[in-house]
UniProtKB/TrEMBL annotation:
Species, as recorded: Penicillium argentinense
Pfam families with a match to the protein in the record: GST_C_3, GST_N_3
Superkingdom assignment: Eukaryota
Gene3D superfamilies: 1.20.1050.130
Membership in a protein family: Belongs to the GST superfamily.
The protein's name: Glutathione S-transferase
Occurrences of domain GST C-terminal (ranges): 101-226
Length: 276
C-alpha cells in the first residue's frame, strides 16, 4: 500500500464538510475534469501532508495543494484565489474563462471582488443572525436588507445583459463562486423566486454535470458521496473505476486520514500522466 505523498504531481483539497467555499472548488475541479484528492477535515492541524508548512497568517480552510512535475509546490488558500489558480494553470483552452486581454476577463475580476467584499460577507452575516440563539433584530435587519440589495443588483445585471451566465456566454469561475450563495439563499432570508432572472440562471446552473454531483440538505450543499472524516478519491477525468473507487484507509486519531488504497493511488497516477 502506498502513501499518497509518493505522488509527484497531485491536487489535494482540504475542506470542511458542507463548506460552501469547498463546494465551489470541487465544482471547478469537476468542470475542469481534474483528478484530485478531497479530504474532509475540521481543522488545519488535521492535515497530514508534511510536504508543506501549513503555518500561515490564518488557519482557515479550504486549502488546495498542487505538485507540478518539475518539483514546484503550490499551496493556495481562499476560494477566490484557488479558483484563479486553477483557471490560470489548467484552463489554457478557456473552457471556463476569457483571454486575459479581453474586457470580459476584467468583468470577471469585477464580479470576483463583488462576491468577496460585498455579497459573501453580508450573506454570511445574515445567515448567522437568523440562526443565532439570541435574536438580534438590528443584525437581522441590517444584513438581510443588504443581502437583498446585492441580489437585486445581480438581478438587474442579468436582466440587462440577457446572457445565460453572469459574464457573457461562458460559465466562468464567477458563476461557480456565486452558485452556493443562491443555493443557500433561504439561510440568509432570501426568497429566490423574487428574482426571476437570477432564478433562471440558478436553474440553468443546476443542469451542469459538476453541480449535479451535489445534494441540497438543510440549506447546505454537500457532495453526494462525501461523509465525515473520510478521504474521497475524486478522479474526475470520468475514470472508470470498480466499486473500490472510494476505498480508503483512515486512522481516526483527531480525525486524521492519511492513507489511500494502492489501487486508488495507481489510478490517480495514471490519470495525472495525461494532464497538461
Amino acid at each position: 500500500m502506498n502513501d499518497h505523498t509518493d505522488l509527484k504531481e497531485s491536487i489535494h483539497l482540504y475542506t470542511k464538510k458542507g463548506s460552501s467555499n469547498g463546494v465551489e472548488t470541487i465544482m471547478l475541479l469537476e468542470e475542469l475534469e481534474l483528478p484530485y484528492y478531497l479530504c474532509s477535515v475540521n481543522h488545519i492541524e488535521e492535515i497530514p501532508d508534511k510536504r508543506f508548512d501549513f503555518a500561515d497568517i490564518h488557519n482557515y480552510l479550504p486549502i488546495l495543494t498542487d505538485f507540478h512535475p518539475n518539483g514546484q509546490r503550490f499551496r493556495v488558500q481562499e476560494s477566490g484565489a484557488i479558483a484563479q489558480y486553477l483557471i490560470a494553470r489548467y484552463d489554457k483552452g478557456h473552457k471556463l474563462s476569457y483571454p486575459t486581454s479581453s474586457s470580459q476577463h476584467t468583468e470577471v475580476n469585477n464580479w470576483l471582488f463583488f462576491l468577496a467584499s460585498r455579497l459573501g460577507p453580508n450573506h454570511r452575516e445574515a445567515a448567522h443572525f437568523l440562526k443565532a440563539p439570541v435574536e438580534v433584530s438590528y443584525g437581522i435587519s441590517r444584513f438581510t436588507n443588504k443581502t437583498i440589495q446585492l441580489y437585486f443588483a445581480t438581478e438587474r445585471h442579468l436582466q440587462n445583459s440577457q446572457m445565460p451566465y453572469i459574464v457573457g456566454n461562458i460559465c466562468t469561475i464567477v458563476d461557480f463562486l456565486y452558485f452556493p450563495y443562491v443555493a443557500e439563499a433561504k439561510s440568509a432570508g432570501i426568497d429566490i423566486d423574487e428574482f426571476p432572472a437570477l432564478n433562471s440562471w440558478y436553474k440553468n446552473m443546476l443542469q451542469r454535470p459538476a453541480i449535479a454531483e451535489f445534494t441540497f440538505t438543510s440549506h447546505v450543499l454537500l457532495p453526494k458521496d462525501l461523509s465525515e472524516n473520510h478521504m474521497h478519491v475524486g478522479l474526475l477525468g470520468r475514470l472508470e473505476l470498480p466499486s473500490r473507487r472510494h476505498s480508503v484507509v483512515t486512522e481516526d486519531v483527531s480525525g486524521l486520514c492519511h492513507m489511500y488504497t494502492e489501487y486508488a493511488v495507481q489510478a490517480a497516477s495514471s490519470n495525472f500522466g495525461n494532464m497538461p
